[in-house]
Amino acid sequence: MPDLRAGALVRRRLRDNGLGLVFGGLFLLALVGQAFAGNGQYNEEQAADGLDRISLWEYVRTSDFAVDVAENWQSEYLQFTLFILATVWLVQRGSPESKQLDERGRGTDADQRLGQHIRAASSSWAKAGGWRTSLYSHSLVLVMGSIFLLSWLAQSIAGWATYNEEQLRQRTSTTTWVEYLAMPDFWSRTLQNWQSEFLAVGSMVVLSIYLRERGSPESKPVGDPHDETADTG
Questions:
Q1: pTM of this prediction?
Q2: Coil, strand, or helix at residue 81?
């Protein structure tokens, strides 16, 4: 009997956390795949330059791998940070990704279940009041934005190291980190990711007005009219 209860508990926890577990697993698989593919490409370039091949473990410690990972992370976290902030004030008629057209802004304490509207199960920081509740009220953007900035910093440092390695291979002069921040290599790496993220978010907001995916909370119910806003299926 205890084994049956333990098995049921495990299955329930897997079910209750399925979305996070699946995407966490996909992230790890993609990261490992990127490491193998990047190592192969790196070694092809090494061979072309008459240099020695390196192992996978050596590759994942290179600036070449670090900059590829960091430039993707920073663009993803920028996308979500901006989207979270934008949806506080901006609306899109007909999109389930938008609030109702007359609900722009931070909302009242009643809307946010604060003050006298607090619930017994609410977070202790939501109940605390003062600076703790204020900080908790913006914690999602603060954390997401911090990860973006740290990833962008890591991209700049790793990109600078990679750029200088290439300069040394070609026996040309290297550059300082500050100089690298103003160079096309840094901004090309940055903007090629930003434009794709902005396109993806904009497409999601607009296409979800007219298209449906039955059962998804990112879609409106199949039978909803196109101008129905903020309703999810």
A1: 0.89
A2: helix
